[in-house]
């Protein structure tokens, strides 16, 4: 619910009281309203299953009474900021109208931020823990064993009437104490501080702030930082008895001893004295034992002091460890930041390289696609050219073959013609030769006939005739 934005009208206790100061009857007494403020516990007991607390405005000390059921109150933390839903009820008391807010539902609890003042309060408490608290009973014991009176300075309000309550609580033990009373404006932190400075220089054993009743707003005086810083520097045992039982102020936390009421303060001192008187009345051996106890207590105090010093050193070591851890974390954070920057630069470089690589791949892909298209076109063109060349070659081959066949035929024809011509020519020449031979033979025959037969010539002519016949037969 803390992350949701409020969309309803939110009042402060001061604004509600302002509404009712102008009109006795208002819608706020009939309808449910929402109040926002700092919740402060009232008494520690429930009446009729209800608690009666207060709700303070955030900006001032104005408050309104709150009635809340036991179940809802168990979910509320003291001094935290809440937004509550409920209604206003009027209670007429002594001729006056008292307004009270009845809680119906807890709407939201605001996350409380640590203020500078709270940090200062925490530092003061830490400082007091380091100093250690002075033991009230030990101081009283030492003084009584030495038969010395305990010097007490009680600081009251200007018109205080609680001295009687303190005296009644102290009862017969007053003889052991030298009590001085001082007064100041108990609701003013500057007045109290001035009185503390005055009293602190007078060497009292115990200095106490004593107050009776009063409104809760005046309790803020005892949370004052400047007053608290002065309070923890006092050498005497510091005591508070400022008349409240529920809230614990900053001075209560810083005091060496805290009592709720002035009567409790006196009764506490009386109780310590009674205890010591009873121990002294037993025997001298008991007194010796008490001295031993006292020595033992002193030894314990020394041990406690050493333990506190050791604790301080441990705290310093822890602080040093914390500082070293913070420095280490800062260095790790710085290194992480630098590593983050480097990683971002690397990622940017990767991105740039990836982008450039993608662009190059895209360019190469486009070029490859273009080359592929060109190669495919070239393949198609080459295939077409090869096909054309094959076709042309086939046609040319066929044409050549046809031409060769034609040439063969022509050659065969010409060869045959040439052979025939040669045969004819040889035949003709042979015929002419034969005819010449026949004529010569006839002439020779005639000559033989006319002359005596010449057998050698006849033989030669016969051989020539045989050769010529053989040649003619070859040619044919």
Write the layout of secondary structure elements.
Layout: E1 10-11, H1 13-22, E2 33-40, E3 50-56, E4 63-69, H2 70-73, E5 81-93, E6 96-109, H3 116-131, H4 136-145, E7 150-157, H5 163-170, E8 177-184, H6 189-200, E9 206-210, H7 225-231, E10 237-241, H8 250-254, E11 257-258, H9 262-282, H10 284-450, H11 455-475
Parallel strand pairs: 1-2, 4-6, 7-8, 7-9, 9-10, 10-11
Antiparallel strand pairs: 2-3, 2-5, 3-4, 5-6
Helix pairs in contact: 4-9, 5-9, 6-7, 9-10, 10-11
Report what the structure shows.
- This protein has 476 residues and is α/β, with parallel strands linked by helices.
- It contains 11 helices and 11 strands.
- It has helices at 13-22, 70-73, 116-131, 136-145, 163-170, 189-200, 225-231, 250-254, 262-282, 284-450, 455-475, and strands at residues 10-11, 33-40, 50-56, 63-69, 81-93, 96-109, 150-157, 177-184, 206-210, 237-241, 257-258.
- Strands 2-3-4-6-5 form a 5-stranded mixed β-barrel. It has a 5-stranded parallel β-sheet with strand order 8-7-9-10-11, with helices on both faces.
- The N and C termini lie far apart (139 Å).
- The mean pLDDT is 80.
Quickly list its features:
rod-shaped, 59% helix, alpha/beta, 11 helices, 5-stranded mixed beta barrel
């Amino acid at each position: 619910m803390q992350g949701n934005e409020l969309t309803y009208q939110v009042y402060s206790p001061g604004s509600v009281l302002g509404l009712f100061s102008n009109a006795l009857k208002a819608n706020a007494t009939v309808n449910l309203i929402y109040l926002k403020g700092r919740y402060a516990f009232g008494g520690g007991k429930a009446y009729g299953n209800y608690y009666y607390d207060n709700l303070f405005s955030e900006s001032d000390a104005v408050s309104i009474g709150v009635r809340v059921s036991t179940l809802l109150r168990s979910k509320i933390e003291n001094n935290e900021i809440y937004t509550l839903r409920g209604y206003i009820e009027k209670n007429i008391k002594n001729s006056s109208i008292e307004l009270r807010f009845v809680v119906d539902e807890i709407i939201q609890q605001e996350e409380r931020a640590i203020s500078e003042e709270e940090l200062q309060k925490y530092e003061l408490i830490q400082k007091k823990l380091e100093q250690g608290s002075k033991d009230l009973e030990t101081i009283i014991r030492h003084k009584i064993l030495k038969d010395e009176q305990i010097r007490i300075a009680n600081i009251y309000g200007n018109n205080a009437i609680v001295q009687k309550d303190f005296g009644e609580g102290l009862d017969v033990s007053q003889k052991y104490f030298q009590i001085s009373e001082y007064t100041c404006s108990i609701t003013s932190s500057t007045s109290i501080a001035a009185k503390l400075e005055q009293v602190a220089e007078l060497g009292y054993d115990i200095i106490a702030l004593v107050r009776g009743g009063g409104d809760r707003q005046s309790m803020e005086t005892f949370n004052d930082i400047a007053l608290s810083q002065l309070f923890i520097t006092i050498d005497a045992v510091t005591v508070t008895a400022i008349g409240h039982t529920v809230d614990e102020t900053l001075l209560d936390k810083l005091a060496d001893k805290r009592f709720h009421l002035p009567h409790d303060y006196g009764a506490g001192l009386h109780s310590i004295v009674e205890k010591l008187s009873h121990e002294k009345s037993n025997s001298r051996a008991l007194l010796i034992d008490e001295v031993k106890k006292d020595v033992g207590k002193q030894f314990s105090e020394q041990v406690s002091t050493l333990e506190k010093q050791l604790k301080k050193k441990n705290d310093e070591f822890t602080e040093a460890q914390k500082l070293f851890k913070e420095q280490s974390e800062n260095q790790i954070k710085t290194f992480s930041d630098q590593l983050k920057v480097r990683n971002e630069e690397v990622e940017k470089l990767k991105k740039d390289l990836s982008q450039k690589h993608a662009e190059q791949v895209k360019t190469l892909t486009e070029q490859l696609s273009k080359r592929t298209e060109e190669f495919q076109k070239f393949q198609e063109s080459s295939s077409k050219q090869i096909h054309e060349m094959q076709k042309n070659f086939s046609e040319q081959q066929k044409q050549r073959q046809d031409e060769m066949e034609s040439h063969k035929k022509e050659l065969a024809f010409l060869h045959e013609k040439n052979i025939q011509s040669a045969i004819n020519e040889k035949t003709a020449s042979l015929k002419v030769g034969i005819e010449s031979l026949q004529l010569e033979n006839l002439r020779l025959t005639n000559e033989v006939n006319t002359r005596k037969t010449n057998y050698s010539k006849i033989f030669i002519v016969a051989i020539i005739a045989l050769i010529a016949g053989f040649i003619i037969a070859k040619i044919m």
